[in-house]
Amino acid sequence: MRTKVLMVCLGNICRSPLAEGILKSKVDPHLVFVDSAGTGGYHIGEKPDPRSIAIARQYGLDISYQRCRKFVREDFDNFDIIYAMDKSNYENILRLADTSDKVKKLKLLLEEVNLETKEVPDPYYGGDKGFEHVFQMISAACEAISARIHKHEK
Ligand code: 4NP
Question: Which helix (H) or strand (E) holds 49?
Fold first, then answer.
């Protein structure tokens, strides 16, 4: 059965669209389904932020087809793993988890790697430079996720 992974940030226009695009580039689509969503509803229906589209393109990934959507309760039923980009996103999603099984599905993305921080910083109000940093952090975590999922499936 396909593992279904949902990447979640606040706006679903900067970090989680990158996480969706990066993880998709590292996994077999027959084995892993990847989507993303935001806890806030400010940009529903919009494309990712142009700075996220640009940094992804620099690394050969096209994320411009993605459209922003809001996280919904049903995502707990439709996904196996839900990765929050930061603790604030984590807390917001946790509030919607009404069973222990749902709570177990929720993780911080950077729990997957040994970096100094467990949070992907919000680059929205920063300059372009933040997007490179965010891209590298997310890539490292997605590499670890991909290795684990594929090892498990073999
Ligand atoms: P994201 O960044 O959570 O990485 O998509 C943000 C995008 C938009 C907003 C906040 C964060 N906003 O407030 O509109």
Answer: none
Among 42, 4, 3, which Cα is nearest to 122's? 42
Ligand 1: does its nearest atom lie under 6 Å from the Cβ of 141? no
Q: Per CATH, the architecture of 3-153 is what? A: 3-Layer(aba) Sandwich (3.40)
Q: For each of the chain's 154 residues, which pLDDT tens digit applies?
A: 899 999 999 999 999 999 999 999 999 999 999 999 999 999 999 999 999 999 999 999 999 999 999 999 999 999 999 999 999 999 999 999 999 999 999 999 999 999 999 999 999 998 777 999 999 999 999 999 999 887 766 5
Ligand 1 centroid to residue 46 C-alpha, Å: 12
35 classed as catalytic = no
In terms of pTM, does the model score above 0.90? yes
Phi and psi at residue 22, in whole multiples of 5°? -70, -45
Centroid of ligand 1 to alpha carbon of 93 (angstroms): 16
Considering only CA atoms, which residue is closest to atom 12 of ligand 1? 11
- Give the integer Cα–Cα distance in Å for 86 and 141: 13
